[in-house]
Design goal:
Largest sheet: none
Distance between the termini: 21 Å
Oligomer: single chain
Shape: globular
Number of strands: 0
Helix content: over 70%
Number of helices: 19
Structural class: mainly alpha
Strand content: under 5%
Radius of gyration: 22 Å
Order of helices and strands: HHHHHHHHHHHHHHHHHHH
Length: about 525
Amino acid sequence: MSLGRSIATVGSFTLLSRIVGFVRDIVLSAVLGSGPVADAFIVAFKLPNFFRRLFAEGAFSAAFVPLFARSLQGEGRDAAITFARQAHSGLLVVLVPFSLLMMVAMPGVIWLLAPGLSDDQSIFDLAVTFGRITFPYLVFISLASLYGGVLNGIDRFAEVAFTPVLLNLAMIGTVLGLTPFLPDAGYAASIGVALAGLLQWLWLLWSCSREGIGMRLVRPRYTERVRRLVQLATPVAIGGGAQQIGSMVDVVWASLLPAGSISALYYADRVMQLPLGVIGIAIGTALLPVLSRQLRAGANDAAMANQNRAIELGLLFSMPSTAALLILAEPMIRVLFEHGRFGPDDTARTAAALAAFAVGLPAFMLIKALMPGFFAREDTRTPLYIALVAIATNVGLNAAFVFGTGLEQVGIALASSLSGWLNAALLAAVLMRRGHWRPDRRLITRTLRVALTAIAMGAALVGGLGVLRPTLAHSDFLGAVALLGLCIGGGLLYGALGAALGVVKLSELRAMLRRQPGVKPADPTEQP
């Protein structure tokens, strides 16, 4: 499967997941609001998600996929599946005791993560309870991440990309169905998280079985390949998770601010994650196995070209998204979330944070496209060192913005964006210095044209916002129609200008979706 087709597959299913995720967040905001109980649930929800992104989807996937691809390419399907089963057993040996320990130590963990919640003992106790309910999610979703790495390694992206839809559906169902029978919606949402982990695990277990890959348990053995996996994954646990670590640091700072600040950052981040998730995560997911196979086969020029096209595609979507989020932040938050217990003050707080997050969107997209350039070469240490610099910068900026300027949650979001730009710049500089990546002429000229097109679209959105402002001041049906019209109109204008300036060419899109020559992918139909 070509890189373009892989990105399109992952991106389309991720878009479906994000749409269902927005429905989930609309339900949560209406039932939970943006107050103390919502803060308690979001802290509890972020905890297993942090370890999922840091270890399972971040460190483990980045280390596992290249090794699995190497084994598949060099030793065949049987050896690759044997390695996957060994990693499966090793993951369980680590995850089960770790999860039990975290659940026992949850009061201390919550105090470290959100010290400000301890000012209200009842809310602190809720966060501890919610944390214990949600934490088993980590075991299930980490195993699902392993299965996803196996499926991606054989060019099966759709099943993995569909998996988050199950999380959103489970949470919507439990919040709407169980809330009337429980003390508050936070309990129902927490149960939904744990149930979602179980459903995602079963879905990908069945998907692997359907491909002839039985992920059965074997006796854990510390083989040479498992040792290499641990060696690669350890630095990625920090290096690949810079954004996640920064996100958790944001929770610590936000817990010291007035109630509702944690929720405001959460909802703002959810909106910003739509373009990042659909395109950025799709690029990172599809690019890593492609680069791994091409570098293994010695097709360095093809790998360089794919790196450039991935960056080009990321900028093509992130630049106009940044313009739209900056200009339409307030009406977006109002139309999406200002219902039920989520009021006008919550809208203003969340919209300001969204605008600050939008500043860093292109940087976060670039990080997704640049990291596979290191991981495919089994270099996980360099991103670690770069991430440490970015994290230290994030902490320093948070202290300056929150306490020095009084920007509160806006300062926290802005610190994340600026540290993201530093991370992306350092990753790019190191790859260029080593000769592993150089921007070709097409990337440079296309980037300039994309920037001009995004600016023109932004100017049109400002004009449209001025005309429709009275309608967009309400979170009713007309407000939603007006917002949708602005977004569609802006997208059509961007596409038309892009076509006129040569930013988007149908012939190139068709070429990206064709299978690329040079490296024969593994045959997923070959049975062990």
